[in-house]
Fold each of these.
Amino acid sequence: MNTSSGVPAVKALVFDVFGTVVDWRISLIDDFTAWSKTRGIQGDWTGLVDAWRGAYVPSMDEVRKHPERGYLALDTLHRQSLEKLVTQFAISGLTEDDLSYMTLGWHRLHPWSDSVSGLTRLKTKFTIGTLSNGNVALLNNMAKHAGLPWDLILSAELFEHYKPDREVYLGAARLLGLQPEQVMMVAAHNNDLKAAQDLGLKTGFVARPTEYGPLQKRDFKADGDWDVVATDFNDLAARLGC
Amino acid sequence: MNTSSGVPAVKALVFDVFGTVVDWRISLIDDFTAWSKTRGIQGDWTGLVDAWRGAYVPSMDEVRKHPERGYLALDTLHRQSLEKLVTQFAISGLTEDDLSYMTLGWHRLHPWSDSVSGLTRLKTKFTIGTLSNGNVALLNNMAKHAGLPWDLILSAELFEHYKPDREVYLGAARLLGLQPEQVMMVAAHNNDLKAAQDLGLKTGFVARPTEYGPLQKRDFKADGDWDVVATDFNDLAARLGC
């Protein structure tokens, strides 16, 4: 798509959230560092947070491989992974309330500095919604906490699948009452956009090169023929005529 | 519940929409009256709108009685009912575009005068969402059109049921990550609140005595032991400490 001609067909933008809208890594590291001091608990919080995110894709794969176990929402997967990791990182003295507090850390993530202003601009012209593997409660609580001005919360949970399963992208378009090409998936992850593009959705890439800190290995730049490539959400708004 | 003690447990308010938040009757009558003049089409628009709403509950009952046919979203039911009614009301000259325009009239409804200001106040303290038999696209389009500041769109469509089926109320609490008693159903209809209360949700009644115009036969006042009874959404906000 030639962005100079605008994107007349697009009615709704749906956003990946972890990494694209919010900085999960620094948010969680800062949160746990400050909180653990008040609780008198020692831990390698950076290591734990990186390992926790490392467990994310494998934990969703388990859900995909075992449909007979039923769908597990991301809050549940986060909690299951955390229980293993606190043992692995030899973090002791955690109560049930502590484990709950840490799991709900994913509800308290901070947006990138351009997220709220860019979304606010985009909302004037488009429906803006989440399309995240986070469950609805997580995404709603995050939005309330971070001031993210979504029109609606769409989640993989609604379809009992996880991205990049096709059910999530096509389900979002169906609920919006739109054709896939009227919906643009916005993400900082090329693989998310590839899955969306293969199903007919439009695509917008926004680089978040510090998402994984020193562990970042990919997604420094657009690796596909995406409809729009922007430096941040305000640049995306400008490119989409907002 | 003694409202003077506040409602500390409630985290989210979910709202019936047709009649409670928006004035479907006058909105549609005015819309079709103005539009039909530009199209040169004659019709008893008041009669048609009242009959259309009259077909609402029976059309959902058909979905409930025939699960083997699959779930039909409200946009589809509205269209099916409309096709019968234009014949019954002898309205001729309607094109496919006209039928689509009329069906989407339900996406263009106007809020009661207190709805936006009251919701804006309530949003500062609570999660506010729809919990309507309208499908997600309808509710999202209406929100964009009318400026309704929802945190999220919850719809009977997500559960493939229609209110007052229990799956809708309990499904909303589940997606919000809340216990039923942490969710308040707000409606202008006593039967909606009765179903919610029976499942453990809190209840808020707001009278909309002109919803059905001269055809209004019930819901002039609270007929149950609801947790909060308010005259409008600003009164509801005040009673809930916003």
Amino acid sequence: MSSAGAYSRQEIGLALDVLETPCLVLEKSRLVANVARLKRHLQPLGVRLRPHLKTAKSIDVARLVMDGAQGPATVSTLREAEYFFSHGVTDLLYAVGIAPNKLDHVFDLRRRGADLAIVLDNLETAQLVAAKSAERRDPLPVLIEVDTDDHRSGIKPPDSILVAVGRTLHAGGAVLRGVMTHAGSSYSLQNQASFEATAEQERSGIVAAAAALRAAGLPCPEVSVGSTPTAHFARDLAGVTEVRAGVFMFFDLVMAGIGVCDIEDIALSVLATVIGHQHDKGWIIVDAGWMAMSRDRGTARLTVDQGYGVVCDLTGDPIPDLIMIDANQEHGILAARPGAQSSPPKLPVGAMVRIFPNHACATGAQHDRYYVVDHDRIVSAIWPRIYGW
Amino acid sequence: MSSAGAYSRQEIGLALDVLETPCLVLEKSRLVANVARLKRHLQPLGVRLRPHLKTAKSIDVARLVMDGAQGPATVSTLREAEYFFSHGVTDLLYAVGIAPNKLDHVFDLRRRGADLAIVLDNLETAQLVAAKSAERRDPLPVLIEVDTDDHRSGIKPPDSILVAVGRTLHAGGAVLRGVMTHAGSSYSLQNQASFEATAEQERSGIVAAAAALRAAGLPCPEVSVGSTPTAHFARDLAGVTEVRAGVFMFFDLVMAGIGVCDIEDIALSVLATVIGHQHDKGWIIVDAGWMAMSRDRGTARLTVDQGYGVVCDLTGDPIPDLIMIDANQEHGILAARPGAQSSPPKLPVGAMVRIFPNHACATGAQHDRYYVVDHDRIVSAIWPRIYGW
């Protein structure tokens, strides 16, 4: 019933068990609650939310998350920029350092009406972007990436390189729109005090970078931060203009494992069907393997390793101690969590389960659509997802 | 230049560096050589090859691999069955234990002309398939899955359950087409003697299962085995009618790491561009992260851990000791292999590289197309790939 193109509005109101498995299930009320939670937290801090749509890759989800139909929004690929722009989203930040071979594509999107800003963190790229901006007579808006937690990209203090990059852009034909950072190290923390400390480190680091540019006589209107843990635990965002975050909309087992959300907040799951057993080992075999769950095993480094996922009943309630302990491409092996006190039920062939993922971004990317539900009822037509570059 | 739909035949003959990154690159001569190698090995053993198209998910690749335009072929999803059938491939085995909710779809494909066979390993499913075959007046062809290496699904000796399943199918309205097994444990072996031993264990186990069915007066025309390591190292396939294998067509760092191929045989790579550096750490940042490479870290358990991939120049030659040591969603971090004797070159911003993957099936699944090359030249129009279910 769920083969490509065969799904229609007539399934609305039916139970989940009419679907062919595996497929991606989105609990709409949890999505709405997760979005409301972050907005409630950010509103009194006086910053706008520029949601990172790489987690959703769906205009239907984006419309429930964005402040307006035109954005603002963050994307991780130019394919996402093309797609969301085709649906009327114009205020876009492409938040991965620009590669020279993507500049023609960026100019083309802007020529068609997208207010697409880019990111860079080095002098060579700044020189190229400035020169191309002048040559094309389209001053590209640029945020300079700053490294505030030593985890990946961005310019670190001292500020001489930052100022040189800013001056190159500003003097050379581009638009210096501001600075941005991403406290990716926050994903490896595990308590509220450390989230708060990292959020303050992210804030103070980026505000100092903005101050350095301004002290050199350069403009810096935007000061952009963001990661799901720091966005939720920041107590003060003075000097920051916007927050980017993505996984907050769905949450996942890593976010629950480090304490950013509860397991009951997870909005995304994979629907699967029991296809067999190895009774001697206590294994239940399902038709969702790593292709449906992704290979992401983010909880492996946490206090509780959830395998390839936590197994729930059709309404989305976890079945105690039942996880996906291993996976092949299209096979998942469900079994009791190592050290479990209870024996999970022996689900018969044909039984259907929902499985919470380690990482919503990675699991979502394996699927081309969302089935939108309220508990075990389908409440919407399909929401398509995009993928690739 | 490579945005969706913008690519055309006019790029044939151009160098790879015209492409937008990241993207998936397929070295055609290596694909052709890998296919020829396995066929050369199997031909004197008297078995047919039923290639597993889950690795390729592309009709253009399939046509270089299959013995004929109509197959035979193996698929891992009904989406693959739909897609290959729409391109004229009719002789199809869906090699994952059937879920009850997929039977309507299977009957529908068969009604439209696909000779689609299914797999199961338990009495409950056999009873359902027999009943549905009778009800639909379409005797479904079934291969019973047998477990010959204790790694996943399938019926194990004693043969009483196997015979009961076979009898249920044969007497009840389905077609008992034979038995199949998959020696998936072979991926964790690392030398020729163990591959040969596991291939013989796979062969003798499945031939014994076929004999048990025949001894009970049941038909068993097909005896199907397969995994890429056992397919290459089997010395005798007496009693076997067909071999299934998939990753052999592309190979990858896991297959090279366990000794099934050389690193120079790997046909699949991801094209990426340098977008920045962290000079103090010796890091080169590229625009291919785990979304482009997949989260598969299969080499982590092998003698040589290749990180997220081995970095090559544009012609596909490895750059000594340069690997992707870590990855975020759209960022990859290239650095010297831990313990490396040499210092890899400091690739400048804008430089492009090709990266061999840990696991061809997982990396391929992240992309919607192949760019087909001979060294650094594009030699074909795009070959599209499918995904999802």
